[in-house]
Here is the input.
Amino acid sequence: MESEKTVCGKCPICGANVVKTLKGWACADSLLSEPKCQFFLFSTVGNRKLSDSEASILLSEKRILLDGFATREGKCFSSILSFNQDGSVNMSSQIGNCPKCGGILYTGPKSVSCGNFKRQENPCNFTIWRNIGGHTSVS
Ligand SMILES: [Zn+2]
Ligand SMILES: [Zn+2]
Here is the structure.
């Protein structure tokens, strides 16, 4: 009988197919009797469950912006997931550089804002509201 494992994407380390397992997504080459690869993506990242479609976007585009992560204090945050060189998941809220001042842009649940907004001298007010009313506006 054929294996019914669904292929969800490509392994970021070796490029083999990634299949769904009970606890997450595994490189097909890690399931061999003599594993050639160790890649495994747990289905829970940062106290948040990844859906199948989120995992396949992450596996095909190598990064995804997700909301709804929770800190231990229960605070909600957004994060960009990507892979480290060893295939482990890297979480970052830093999504790039501010076009106004070159500071670091951080993503939050509602907006992307510049990390320099709090600085004493010459604070930066760059903010992008994310998808409010179906469009993105820059202020
Ligand atoms: Zn692999
Ligand atoms: Zn800025």
Observations:
- Residues 98, 100-101, 103, 114, 116, 124, 126 surround zinc ion (ligand 2) (CB under 6 Å).
